[in-house]
Amino acid sequence: MNMVEGKRVNVVVTNGIIMALYLALTILVTPVASGAIQFRISESLNHLVVFNRKYLWGIFGGVVVYNAIFGMGWLDVVFGGGQTLLALSLTAILQNVVKNTKVRLALNVVFFSASMFLIALMLNLTAQWPFWPTYGWTALSEAIIMTVSAPIMYYLNQRLHFAKQI
């Protein structure tokens, strides 16, 4: 195996581990992982993309698999996966534009919280929950998890150097 193939394998394996970790952390809090108020501690892994955009696929895969197994049907896979992919992509795009890690972490919180409109829309379509209150609760719960976990992930990065792992 040459060096390029080895790096590709490393990226795939690392993303597989992230996906499994996302699933395990979400399953751990299943009673509060879905609905209008979502406290998925696994959402803290969304911050990994701030440090290295190659982590995007592990997080996205974890969301899609969890929603496919435990979610509210195929719409949850589409909307939940879409929300995650949108927010992660916005953060990944900024990796070379915004050099300050703390600013990227803050923007990641904003992207994830604001994009919860997709989850509110899905809950409106599937469960007829009113859009605006649902959006308010999903965005607030996402903002809380993401805000609390941002400094933790920043600290972990100083010790583990996420950008250099893959």
TrEMBL record:
Q: Provide the alphabetized UniProt keywords.
A: Membrane, Transmembrane, Transmembrane helix
Q: What is this protein called?
A: QueT transporter family protein
Give me the segments passing through the membrane.
Answer: 12-34, 55-75, 81-98, 105-123, 135-156
Species annotation? Candidatus Enterococcus murrayae
Does the record carry Membrane as a key word? yes
Q: Which InterPro entries match?
A: QueT (IPR010387)
Keyword check for Transmembrane helix: yes
